[in-house]
Amino acid sequence: MTSPDGLTEANKEEIQSAYRRWLVGRGFRARKGQRQMIALVARQMASADNRICVVEAGTGTGKTLAYCLGVIPLALATEKRVVVSTATVALQEQVVLQDLPDLKRHGELDFTYALAKGRGRYVCPKRLQEQLAADPNRQMAMFSQPGEEDLELYRRMWAEFDERKWDGELDSWDEAVAVPVWSAVTTDHRGCSKNRCEHFRECPFFRARAKTRDANVVVANHDLVLADLALGGGVVLPEPEETIFILDEAHHLPEKTQQHFAAQARLRASAGWLEQMSAAVATMAQRFARPPEVVAAATRLTGEVEVAGQLLEQAEQLAEGLEFRGRDEREGVCRFPHGRVPEELRDLAEPLATYFQSMAKTLAELHENLEEVMDGGRPWQNADQAGDWLPVLGTLLHRAEASGALFADYAKPRSEQDELTARWATRIAFQGVRQGQGDVELASAPIDPGTILHKALWDACHGAVATSATLCALGSFERFIERSGLDAEVAQMRIPSPFDFPNVATFTVPRLAADAGNFDAHTAELTARLPGLLAQESSALVLFTSWRQFRAVVEALPSELLRHCLLQGERSKRRLLERHRKAIDDGGKSYIFGLGSFTEGVDLPGDYCRHVILSKLPFQAPDDPLDEALAEWLESNGRNPFYEMSVPDTSLRLVQACGRLIRSDTDTGRITLLDRRIVTRRYGRSLLDTLPPYRMDFDAE
Fold it and tell me: Rounded to an integer, what distance in angstroms lies between the CA atom of residue 580 and that of residue 574?
């Protein structure tokens, strides 16, 4: 028998029985909010249509268990698959290493699960060995020789990987690794030889991918989901129409979508790699004894590179005349009002798009030729080197396609350059170079990610749950729903945290002499107050809103205090948190200093975090071109961007940051905000009203 909401009696009994078994197994009592979330999720996923819901579940609700229990039994019964997607690696690993095994064991549900990350999170053993071998006879023109410091890192990586002490994932490596250093030892799908590679059986990426192929539940991240959807879906993850998506930390989804569908191209760097490309393909022709198709491609590319280089030089000259604004005369941003590119730049972008798209087509053909050589279908000499050239052409092709996409966007007729796309130029000064030796990056990105998500995700999937501890801005789902492209009538539920906030946490705003808007004075006061604030507890999380203030404060703090401070960027986030926990477990002091990424995905219950210190209200940087473009669009439509965008977004970030303090029903502690604007400005009351009901103290010294 099926109830009006689509749930059969068998569905209900299975979910309820699993929940009872889980509660008994864990020794827990049922939570009202958790039961409500299970019921809503199950009802929506079982309905005949509109299988989408939005749930804000406050900290302590137990939302991971709730959405898993509300979805997995139904997915198994209907032969659908589940993709759990998170924004942070920490939650992704928690779900796959803790929550799903826990539900399977204590709930006695029979399902399989696997972790899926993008290829770029795994080391490529072949490329790692190539970096270590550094054979000049096989070294490609695109890849420079690693320095001694990088070589030492690669040696340690290979030793630990070879001895099975490291699984090849970037996220499990002990140290922070610079992006260029890591990029040299990973690859994308175009640079991979797949099962033709000598390292295929031990490849971390393919070992992980094999586990996801038939799993009932795949734990991914938003970037991977968006990448798969951009390819039409079902390429890396299950087919969307056969999948129920659980989007945890869903407040990140709009921003992630903007980032994924953005386009960039650096003018001077593009000219440089075009020359490298021409040289690389010419070298490739020589290495394979001048096959006619490669010689023809090299000749064609040489002519196109010459003309494209001249056009890029003209674009550089135009860019020098743009009005950049920023911290100093060497760095800054020039946003094009209403997304409209200056006519002279648009005229240059049109032929540049044509040339880059043509070069991309040639490189794609060469890439296919190489794969045929590796399969034995194309008789080139020195065929054993074909696998060495795949990553070279893959890198070149990716760059050509990316630049072609940017210039094609800039080349649109003025009438098609709508206000819902932000376009801007960034002047970049490289450290240690003279003025004029930097670069200019052109960029574009959608300011309306909802349109993309509506078509690619919500209309394509079998069902979806969007959830987070912070989805409501100023008490409403309106901002999230608009930015995510959801229908206004989508099923919604807001579940408050069960914690007794008035009795376990104090929110303090001390009396300050400096206004947070005065950088120098405020930084000096932060530096003076932090030693006393940190002395109150043996553990604390200190959160900044900018690297500039972070560095200025750290440089000014006494060395005795810094001995107990763990600083973001010194090592990977996971290792930093491990060191913090160990210091506290050993009876010592430990204070974590971080920025926005530490406002979520950080779980430090009990003695691990007794004090959260916020340097100032987490307003977005005022010169962010995407936010500026959205504000401009809102204003042009008679709306108030400060109260419709800035204040709601700040309220979300503030709640997230404060949420690091109370992680369980036995936690206690203090939050200190070193920014009086929350009590002196009109918008402050709106921000305070969004916080949990902490005990408030606005007059502390």
Answer: 10
Strand partners, 467: 55
Give yes or no for a contact between 449 and 626, defined as CB atoms under 8 angstroms apart.
Answer: no
Q: What is the pLDDT of residues 435-481, one digit of tens each?
A: 456 899 999 999 999 999 999 999 999 999 999 999 999 989 999 99
Residue matched to tokens 């250093």? 181
**Helices in 231-326 by DSSP H: which ranges?**
253-260, 267-287, 292-320
Indicate the SS3 state at residue 106. Answer: helix
Residue with tokens 């002490």: 165
Selection from 319, 248, 694 nearest residue 507 by Cα? 694
Residue 433: what pLDDT? 42
What is the rounded distance in angstroms from the CA atom of residue 508 to the CA atom of residue 678? 11
Contact 405, 419 (CB under 8 A): no
Q: Would you tell me the crossing angle of helices 253-260 and 222-230 to the nearest 10 degrees?
A: 50
**Three-state secondary structure along 322-384?**
CCCEEEECCEEEEECHHHCCCHHHHHHHHHHHHHHHHHHHHHHHHHHHHHHHHCCCCCCCCHH
- 613 close to 674: Cβ distance less than 8 angstroms: yes
Write out pLDDT tens, residues 181-199.
Answer: 998 899 888 888 888 888 9
Instruction: Phi first, then psi: give them for residue 700, nearest 5 degrees.
Output: -70, 150
Report the distance separating Cα 506 and Cα 174, nearest Å.
35
DSSP 594-639: E-GGGGSS----GGG-SEEEESS--PPPTT-HHHHHHHHHHHHTT-
CA distance 574 to 92: 13
